[in-house]
Specification:
Elements lengths: L1 H16 L6 H27 L15 H9 L47 H16 L7 H22 L4 H20 L10 H21 L7 H11 L4 H8 L3 H4 L2 H14 L3 H8 L4 H7 L3 H15 L7 E2 H8 L3 H10 L3 E2 L4 E3 L20 H7 L4 H6 L3
Antiparallel strand pairs: 1-3, 2-3
Helix pairs in contact: 1-14, 2-7, 4-5, 4-6, 5-6, 6-7, 8-11, 8-13, 11-12, 12-14, 15-16
Length: about 400
């Protein structure tokens, strides 16, 4: 009887840890379509007025349209990353045309969002994304990174807005989406544990799922060869471990792609997650690249918790002792952090660095007591000399 109850507890923890919303790919697509509706409605209305099936084509060759730059300058709404050097202390700082980037603006009634002079063509959009990565996200001078993230996040939404209005597709669209997905996956790891007022993981997740769904749709419908498709198919599954739709999508891929090494590894990790085998999952995780581990990292806290729960039941004996260093190896943590993690879950570690498991003593930590970012050793050790620029551009 006790054994059955223990099994149900473990299954419940895995279900709770799995990403919510099994319809991840479908719902993300719907979110993108809903956000684009006001903009597409304006496009259709303009088409009807012109009496033809015209799609707006941007002519703005700058990262920020001149009119927007003048307006934001007059309203003192320039971000400090966009201010012309030397005018920072002025009563009304001037905007730097080479550094200002079009900001995201919500669609509004009566606002013409299809003006070609306000839209950037695909080549300029890709140039803008590369600028945001190279000069902002990867900069060693700009800090804190929470502010860097907030700025890049908003400007990428502006890029997406221009893409939707112009119905951008093809290789430029894929190149933009790939870099955007990498940015959000990296940010989900780097900013883990930051206060909600500075970084909201749910908002980041919502937009990441949307960009990821859009990118996978491009792969499925585009005739062009996509050399990075294997990378992003694996990232999608690792980020959405336990999702039936994510796994089904992988199984519907061509055999050549499905049998690629990174996708095969992602499938094995997903299988270990479904089988509630955190030991095997963490062992396989050592074979992942840095960015793949970033995608996996949001599941690490649940894996650590379930491993301790399973061992608390399996080794629950008054005379049983488990070596702390061996447990540290299984958790992919150093010994002091492993002892802290045990303490957080009520697992005793004696003076001889031996773990005393007890199913009765296992308890959930208080909310806010367990800092997830302390237990990212398996991710941080893979970064080594990789720069943010290399990570996001896919040169890692």
């Amino acid at each position: 009887m006790n054994r059955r109850r223990g099994g149900r507890r473990i299954a419940h923890s895995q279900r709770r840890a799995a990403p919510s919303g099994g319809q991840w790919r479908q719902s993300s697509k719907e979110q993108r379509q809903d956000e684009a509706k006001p903009q597409r409605r304006e496009v259709v209305e303009q088409d009807q007025r012109l009496g033809q099936e015209a799609v707006p084509r941007g002519t703005c060759q700058a990262m920020c349209p001149a009119r927007e730059l003048r307006n934001r300058e007059a309203q003192n709404r320039l971000h400090r990353f966009e201010v012309l050097p030397g005018t920072e202390r002025d009563w009304r700082p001037r905007g730097d045309a080479l550094r200002a980037v079009k900001e995201y603006s919500r669609p509004a009634a009566g606002k013409d969002s299809t003006n070609p002079a306000e839209l950037r063509p695909p080549a300029v959009l890709l140039k803008t994304v590369c600028y945001l990565i190279d000069e902002i996200a990867a900069s060693l001078r700009l800090h804190p990174w929470t502010e860097v993230y907030s700025f890049v996040f908003d400007r990428l939404r502006g890029v997406k807005q221009d893409m939707i209005i112009q119905r951008v597709s093809g290789l430029d669209c894929v190149a933009i989406l790939e870099r955007t997905v990498r940015f959000h996956i990296y940010a989900s790891y780097r900013l883990c544990g930051e206060p909600l007022r500075l970084y909201d993981p749910r908002i980041n997740d919502t937009h990441l799922q949307e960009y990821l769904s859009w990118l996978l749709d491009c792969y499925a419908t585009g005739p062009e060869p996509h050399p990075n498709q294997e990378e992003f198919q694996a990232l999608a599954l690792l980020y959405n471990l336990g999702s039936a739709h994510a796994a089904q999508h992988i199984m519907e891929l061509p055999e050549r792609l499905r049998s690629a090494p990174s996708i095969t590894l992602a499938l094995s990790i997903n299988q270990a997650f479904l089988e509630r085998n955190p030991v095997r999952l963490l062992r396989l995780a050592h074979r992942l690249s840095f960015l793949q581990t970033c995608a996996l990292h949001r599941h690490l806290a649940a894996c650590h918790r379930d491993l301790l729960l399973i061992y608390s039941h399996g080794f629950s004996s008054r005379n049983c002792r488990f070596p702390l260093d061996r447990l540290a190896g299984l958790l992919s943590l150093d010994t002091p952090l492993t002892a802290q993690l045990c303490q957080a879950y009520g697992v005793e570690v004696n003076r001889d660095d031996q773990v005393v498991f007890s199913k009765a003593a296992f308890s959930e930590p208080e909310q806010g007591k367990l800092h997830c970012n302390l237990y990212h050793s398996i991710v941080s050790e893979k970064q080594k000399d990789l720069t943010v620029q290399n990570i996001i551009h896919g040169c890692a």
